[in-house]
Amino acid sequence: MPKMKAAVLEEMGLPRPYAKSNPLQIQELSLEAPGPGEVLIQIKAVGLCHSDLSVINGDRPRPTPMVLGHEAAGRVAECGEGVNDLRPGDHVVLAFVPSCGACLPCMEGRPALCEPGAEANRVGTLLSGARRLHQGDRPIHHHIGVSGFAEYAVVSRRSVIKVDESLSSAEAALFGCAVLTGVGAVVNTAKVPAGASVAVVGLGGVGLNSLLAAGLVGAREIIAIDMNPQKLKIASTLGATRTFEAGPSTVADVRDFTGGGLDYAFEMAGSASALALAYGVTKRGGTTITAGLPHPDRQFAFAPVQLVAEERAIKGSYFGSCVPARDIPRYIALFRQGKLPIDRLVTRSVRLAEINDAFDRLADGQVVRQVLVFDS
Fold it and tell me: In DSSP terms, which residues pair with 370 in a beta bridge?
């Protein structure tokens, strides 16, 4: 088994700053060759996402030890038995929900809800049930089928989308999560029509992609809401028609400004309080969509009578309700046409050795998207 460097999470919930507690430890691991239906990927770039941070801080419990990282792009290095439609050197984006193609959600055209894929992600294996990562005799868990904070990864063929090689790896990586989740929530889950009014609560990489998508589909009003003034400034440059700093009076202020609320409100902050805010700024007859992932113990309270008397709707969006093989090429084409300027969301590139410092910056809200780049 070849050796490689990877960032391994040994224990969740370590105290901040992460630069001192070092939850992600750079270790040398062994990686098995790809099995049937699997592919060895040389990782070139991987985004640092709040979903990774949610595992580090314990909000999203996962089995440890685990190699995190799920928003990744790279090149095919080797194909396992039965993989005949990819070749070494192909440029690819990795999708963090491997779709089996045979369960009921997959057959209904909803691969984001693949049942075997969800179970494999829950227990930290590949879709086949295998763990290809090891440290000596100790198996290391895979993070939602990708484990991109490593020089190489073995993944299911069902996690791999071939892309145009002229796209830089740092740009391509964002299409594996931030773009799929944020744009997909607007286009696929909500199906926002032209002329609608939209609010986005939480302006990280996913939230700002939702804001870009709202402009893409022709929303007439795009309200951006966040606790961070710097992110509100960024939102203003990306198409927000009005910004509000989140606080005790935000719901009242937004409803007053809009004359009763918005048609669609998207919660992208990953907190129950942000979802309550998004619900509060949604108008009668409107829809609140949440793609955030707060701790499983957190709850959100609302008056059920509103759902009937005001014909309100609350809807979850996982993985942007996407079909990756369909949507990633579409979104890349829109990026190339200048309609989804996702390159403007990348704050900085980082190296593997500084990954804990990078997650401190993410937790502090100092950045939108950092991309871990491998030179080799």
Answer: 48, 348
Question: Does residue 65 have a cis peptide bond before it, meaning omega lies within 30 degrees of 0?
Answer: yes
How far apart, in whole angstroms, are the C-alpha atoms of residue 275 and residue 337? 33
Same domain, 16 and 157: yes
Q: Which residue has the tokens 């014909």?
A: 311
SS (H, E, C) 197-247: EEEEECCCHHHHHHHHHHHHCCCCEEEEEECCHHHHHHHHHCCCCEEEECC
Side-chain-side CA neighbours of 31 within 13 Å: the count stands at 27
In this prediction the pTM is 0.96
Q: Are residues 72 and 17 in the same domain?
A: yes
- For residue range 187-242, what is the model confidence (pLDDT) as tens digits? 999 999 999 999 999 999 999 999 999 999 999 999 999 999 999 999 999 999 99
pLDDT tens for 148-202 read 999 999 999 999 999 998 899 999 999 999 999 999 999 999 999 999 999 999 9
Tell me which residue range forms the domain holding 139. Answer: 3-176+341-373
Q: Is the peptide bond before 88 cis (omega within 30 degrees of 0)?
A: no
Instruction: Return the CATH number at 215.
Output: 3.40.50.720
Say how many domains are in the chain. 2
**Claim to verify: residue 236 and residue 213 sit in the same structural domain:** yes
Average pLDDT over residues 18-27: 98
